[in-house]
Specification:
This protein is an alpha/beta fold and 178 residues long. The chain has a single domain (5-176), classed as UDP N-Acetylglucosamine Acyltransferase, domain 1. The protein has 4 helices and 15 strands. The chain has helices at 5-19, 26-32, 34-50, 55-69, and strands spanning 72-73, 78-79, 84-85, 92-93, 98-99, 104-105, 110-112, 125-126, 131-132, 137-139, 143-144, 149-150, 155-156, 165-167, 172-173. The strands form 3 sheets. Strands 3-6-9-12-14-15 form a 6-stranded mixed beta sheet. Strands 1-4-7-10-13 form a 5-stranded parallel beta sheet. Strands 2-5-8-11 form a 4-stranded parallel beta sheet, with no helix packed on it. A hairpin with a 4-residue loop joins strand 14 (165-167) and strand 15 (172-173). Helix 3 runs antiparallel to helix 4. It starts with a helix and ends in a 5-residue tail after the last strand.
Length: 178
């Protein structure tokens, strides 16, 4: 069942306040958080993407949003509730990416594809309650289990289970190497 837009907005503001100690109040988040602006624009573009005849409008809105926020989210991506993009600049989320609920994404993150087929799943699937560090690159049709942490500048190119701690190039699961 879809969430009412006002409830979604309140959830997003609460998620930022919970995850970002620099967030002082709701007004600041609503007016000054470009990552939230990108998420909100994505939600509208995603609705348009799914409506007959509005794919071009959806793409134009996503490109306009990219120019304003520095965050590029393809309107075909599927993004869960209470997702926070902190700082955001340089973040890219591809068309077939799936992002779970309560995910925190820092700046410079790429959820990128590695195939060219139009009807193929080409981008990552991220579970719930995942933290993706600044500059991390997740490439291809891979799955990252819920409650995982992905380190700064990690390059992730294959699946990892829940509760993983991923670091390095290529990323390895630090929980398996303890």
């Amino acid at each position: 069942m879809p969430v009412h837009p006002l409830r979604s907005l309140r959830e997003d503001v609460a998620a930022v306040r919970y995850r970002d100690p620099a967030a002082r109040n709701a007004a600041e988040i609503v007016l000054a958080y470009s990552g939230m602006h990108a998420i909100w624009a994505y939600r509208l573009a995603h609705r348009w993407w799914r409506a007959p005849g509005l794919k071009l409008a959806a793409r134009l809105l996503s490109q306009f949003t990219r120019s304003v926020t520095g965050v590029e989210i393809h309107p075909g991506a599927v993004i869960g509730r209470r997702v926070v993009i902190d700082h955001g600049m340089g973040t890219v989320i591809g068309e077939t990416a799936v992002v779970g609920n309560d995910v925190l994404i820092y700046h410079g993150v790429t959820l990128g594809g590695n195939k060219r087929g139009q009807n193929d799943k080409r981008h990552p699937t991220i579970g719930d309650d995942v933290v993706i560090g600044a500059g991390a690159k997740l490439i291809g049709d891979i799955s990252i289990g819920s409650h995982s942490q992905i380190g700064v500048n990690a390059v992730v190119t294959h699946d990892f289970p829940e509760h993983s701690v991923l670091t390095g190039i290529p990323a390895i699961n630090r929980n398996e190497h303890v």
